[in-house]
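Sequence only, no structure available. Ideas?
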Amino acid sequence: MYIEELRFIFFRRRTAISFFVLGAISLLLGIVVATFGNGRGGGGGNPFLDQISHNGVFLGVSAITTAQIVIIPLVISVAAGEAFAQEAAYGTLRYLLISPVSRVRLLIVKALALSTYALAAVLFMATVGLIVGAILFPVGNVTTLSGTTVSYLDGVLRLYGVALVEVLSVMSIVGLGIMASTLTDSAIGAASISFGIVVILEILNNIPQLVHFAPLMLSNYFSASNDIFRSPIVYSNVLKDLYEQLGWMAVTYLVSWARITTKDITS
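Reply:
I predicted one. Tokens follow.
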């Protein structure tokens, strides 16, 4: 059942488009930096942008940290929003719900498949960035955010560490998308609900008066992945991100479970 769900997700035109968009971010970012240089402090809150021209490994890191607020959540919201809503709209959900497979198992399978999709999407983005970075820029020893130098292999491992932390950071978005998908038979509506919540929480997270509520905001620890490029690696914010994601996942999957097991879903 898990394999069938993976086939349903990956062998779709929308999935191919989403991977193209994620890969294009790394490619376009590399071309821009190779053509115009790093700029003068134009990196804003991204500490890796100014390092791309010095070492290609930072292209993949910069692409992920640039896309983590909007593009990656949007792509995952669209995929997760289709989990139940699209099958309800097509009329196939009723057959799943009356099959011998329990509804809880169906929820778990879809959650695992969508989590696998999120993992594959972010790793693909990191890999494209790594390849394009090696083609367009010098490679060699990597200077960390702490000013120390590590080997290129260590830098590559840290790049994929950033990718894994980013996957961890968007697990709650998978839960939001699935929850929204159980509440409507419109995949677009479910995606809009999920992504809309992410945007609203990001806006609230930037209001100084709400600083005491920051730990509850879904995107508060998205920048925890930056700490992978410190020497030694700092795990405190990564752990806080894990706790935050687990909290959001508990709430969203509890709502999804309640919706699936106690109500008929429109189909």
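The longest strand covers residues 142-143.
Hope that gets you unstuck.
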